Amino acid sequence: MKMRATEFVSSYFDAWNHRDPVAVADHLARDGLYWDVPENRRSSHDELVVALREFFSAYRHRYELIGEIVEGPATIAFQYRMCPLDCSGRRGGPAQPIQGAEFITLHGDAAATIHDYYELPATGRTPGKAQPVSALPGRGKYAKSGLTAAQLSAHRQRLETVMVSRQAWLRSDLTLPKLARLVGCSVNHLSQVINAGFGMTFFDYVNRYRVEHAKRMLADTSGDEGAILNIAFAAGFNSNSAFYAAFRKFVGQTPARYRRTRTDH
To answer: Whole-prediction pTM value?
Structure first.
């Protein structure tokens, strides 16, 4: 039975409030990633533990949920407040609370991805007032989109369904407008969902699926460079150069080298 969203979030907040880096990171799946979107940094389980140890040694905060938890079949979204604590552990001090939002994709009871967005409070902002997702860092161009956290989560869920169930990324002619029609939302809203929900551009988002498909094919296939080119086209890429560039970006090595590491046993 999958852990309910409220249980996951409660456990997650408890780990942050106990300043336990391992407990926080343990909410990730084995291959899960934590995305610090404002810092444009992705961390695996072990990398997150190292980063949080440094963070917790330098800062003390109390983490509080703002509003309701938005839950989908395999997604969780919520807003939070990070309140600075004084040396005695009491809330307060000269620093102002930081507000943010997290979008989590689940794999079973663990998180496949955690996208964390946050911002420093603006001068004159009413303390404790939850900010719309469109006001989070890096989304100034979406300020008038009107998307709420619930709507953003719903669009994201439909997008994931289109990408996973219908494998839209296999279409080499896939564009942002075409994908928006499949999802059933405007181009601007889809652009926001990809940027805010996944911390990447449309092309990186689509190519990530293509690269994962190519990785599976490379691990099960042997052959010459021509076979690798066939894999590129089969994964949805329309050129060899685009395939190699995307593969190196997401995997850190060429397709040929990746296949050798998987088949030379």
So the answer is: 0.50
